[in-house]
């Protein structure tokens, strides 16, 4: 990528943020200027802006800076997602090796699922649009349906009654039907989506629940619709549910230490 696309003030602001974060203690404007070799006025503006955005905290009385709430939250989220991927990957690999189809891992953010991991078979990989980091509407994916079904009633209703975009002609966009579908998902423990998010693709999704039963993530198996016969769908759903239970158990064990 050419330098024409690089925003230099952003680079400098990130240098200031990184410097403060790496010190592990409160720092002053003067030492930040000295270490980074940037103009004092520039550094002051970046420190104040980052503080206003809560990525840093400014102790006005002592005139010192430290990492802020948003920075800590981001670090915590990254640590949690890294832990989730590490726990989930062995189970995801077993599913890929058993069914020779793509297995996805995602979390719910507002009304969208965010793909945080994806394992594909060596042969016949699914040519789907989803990639790690991509977002899709929760209501059109088995991942989203699996998580929505296990949300508290108020959160579930809020998501189901939002703007429900039409991804394909099969996408379910009626809030009442989605709530009834959620009842079925809770009862059987998995969600099925056939061509609602992408034409010709079928997905089976299961929630990954924390100790309180809240859906912290979901896992799905994706395959061309033509390959997922009813008997295979049942077997895959059972395997996914078993894998999700083991991931949930291991997450609770890891985070209780």
Describe the structure concisely for a colleague:
Helices cover 48% and strands 19% of the residues.
Can you describe this structure?
It is elongated and about 70 Å long. It has 8 helices and 8 strands. The strands form 2 sheets. A 6-stranded antiparallel sheet has the order 5-4-3-8-7-6, with helices on both faces. Strands 1-2 form a two-stranded antiparallel ribbon. It folds into 2 domains: 3-67, Arc Repressor Mutant, subunit A, CATH 1.10.10.10; 74-255, GAF domain (Beta-Lactamase), CATH 3.30.450. The protein is an alpha+beta fold and 257 residues long. The longest helix has 31 residues, at 69-99. A hairpin with a 2-residue loop joins β3 and β4. The model has no long low-confidence stretch (mean pLDDT 88). Helix content is 48%, strand content 19%.
Task: Offer a few descriptive terms.
single chain; 257 residues; alpha+beta; Arc Repressor Mutant, subunit A; Beta-Lactamase; 6-stranded antiparallel sheet; 8 helices; 8 strands; 19% strand
Task: Give the secondary structure arrangement, pairings included.
Blueprint: H1 8-23, H2 29-36, H3 40-52, E1 56-59, E2 64-67, H4 69-99, E3 102-109, E4 112-119, E5 135-137, H5 142-148, H6 153-160, H7 175-188, E6 191-194, E7 201-209, E8 215-224, H8 230-255
Antiparallel strand pairs: 1-2, 3-4, 3-8, 4-5, 6-7, 7-8
Helix pairs in contact: 1-3, 2-3, 4-8
């Amino acid at each position: 990528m050419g330098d024409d696309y690089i925003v230099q003030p952003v680079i400098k602001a990130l240098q200031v943020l990184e410097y403060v974060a790496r010190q592990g203690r409160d720092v002053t404007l003067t030492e930040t200027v000295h270490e980074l070799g940037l103009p004092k006025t520039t550094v002051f503006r970046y420190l104040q802006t980052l503080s206003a955005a809560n990525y840093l905290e400014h102790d006005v009385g002592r005139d010192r800076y430290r990492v802020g709430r948003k920075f800590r939250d981001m670090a915590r989220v990254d640590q949690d997602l890294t832990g989730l991927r590490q726990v989930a990957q062995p189970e995801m690999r077993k599913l890929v090796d058993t069914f020779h189809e793509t297995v996805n891992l995602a979390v719910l953010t507002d009304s969208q699922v965010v793909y945080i991991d994806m394992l594909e078979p060596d042969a016949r990989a699914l040519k789907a649009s989803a990639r790690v980091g991509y977002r899709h509407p929760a209501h059109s994916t088995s991942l989203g349906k699996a998580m929505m079904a296990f949300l508290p009633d108020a959160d579930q209703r809020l998501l189901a009654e939002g703007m429900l975009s039409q991804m394909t002609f099969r996408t379910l966009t009626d809030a009442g039907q989605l709530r009834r579908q959620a009842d079925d998902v809770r009862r059987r423990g998995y969600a099925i989506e056939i061509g609602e998010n992408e034409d010709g693709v079928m997905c089976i999704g299961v929630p990954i629940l924390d100790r309180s039963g809240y859906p912290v993530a979901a896992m799905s198996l994706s395959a061309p619709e033509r390959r997922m016969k009813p008997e295979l769908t049942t077997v895959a759903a059972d395997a996914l549910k078993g894998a999700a239970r083991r991931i949930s158990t291991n997450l609770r064990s890891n985070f209780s230490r």
